Each structure stands twice: as C-alpha cells, then as structure tokens.
C-alpha cells in the first residue's frame, strides 16, 4: 500500500479497497483524523457493488449496462456477477446458454442463498478490460480512455480495472474491479512507478 500526499490531500494507492481490508481501514482512520482522503470510504464501497456502481456512474453520464437483480431468472446472453459478501467484480461470467447459466448461478449464489446481478447483452457483445491509473490508460482506444477519465472523476479510485461491454452501440461500463500489481503490463507498471518515484511515501 502506498500513500501519496499532495497539497492538503492524501491518496491511498492499493490493489484493492474492499470493506474491512487494511486500505479501507486506513481510509476510514484518515477521514476520522480530518484528513482529506482519496478515495473516500463511501467511494470504494460504491465502486465494488455492481448495481450501486452503475447507478452512480449513470448519474455521472457514463454509459452503463442495464442490470437486473435476480435469484433465479436470467435473460440470455448475459454477464453475471455475484452479490454475496465474498463476491468480487473481478469474477464475472459471460453466459450464452441455459446449461452454462445454471452452473454459474449456482456458483455465484452459493446454491441459491444469495441474489446475483446480470446484465443483458447481445450475441455480438464482447467484454473489454482496461486498467486506469489516476484516470489514465495505456494502449487503449480514445473512447475507452475518455471513459476512464470520467470514471476517475466519478469514483476517485487511483488504481482500478474498468470492465466494459462493447457492442454495436459502443462501450458501456459493466463494473469496476480490483487490480493486481502482478497483472499490470510493463507500460502500466512504469506509469505507476514513475508517479510513485516522484511523489509518494511508502506506507509502513
């Protein structure tokens, strides 16, 4: 975990900001101490719950996937996310037939104990991912780069994976997910490292 201090603001940079993790509690403590902190505790909670994330993004005029919360019914093809306490937006499933959907729903709902979220897509839809570092992307098209900037303005998360659905209408936000440092490309690692080398103090 890294802490970037700039003017009167403290930025927390980490792979994940999930509830009850060290980064989350670091943010909460900083807020309690009166320090302006980015991202805020409310922003990270909003970001990792898919339906809340998409509604907040829609308010920021970011194109998003239509979503439905269900316990069993699903319209195919679709992208499926779990909504239980242990689920993560990193685990999303594109399902196109009933047999596949049945297996995925059993998995994400823990045999029907929890609801799930699905997003209706078309047969031509593709899931596209990009890493956003303070709203900047590497080797992404202009449309995706513009969306990443809007996402950063709306959620203020320094390091995040943006999951998009691409179809005939363009790109739509599907979810925001944690990023593993080990999965960053060489160019992304260099972009992040250059920022850290000049303006960061490593957290202890």
Topology:
Blueprint: E1 2-6, E2 9-13, H1 22-32, E3 36-38, H2 41-48, H3 50-59, E4 68-70, E5 78-82, E6 92-95, H4 98-108, E7 116-120, E8 126-133, H5 142-155, E9 159-167, E10 170-177, H6 186-199, E11 200-202
Parallel strand pairs: 2-3
Antiparallel strand pairs: 1-2, 1-11, 4-7, 5-6, 5-7, 8-9, 9-10
Folded structure, characterized:
The structure is a single chain. With 204 residues, this protein is of the alpha+beta class. Helices cover 33% and strands 28% of the residues. The strands form three sheets. Strands 3-2-1-11 form a four-stranded mixed sheet.
- Summed up, the domain count is 2
CATH class of the largest domain: Alpha Beta
Question: Proportion of β residues?
Answer: 25-35%
Oligomerization state: single chain
- How many helices? The count is 6
Strand order of the largest sheet: 3-2-1-11
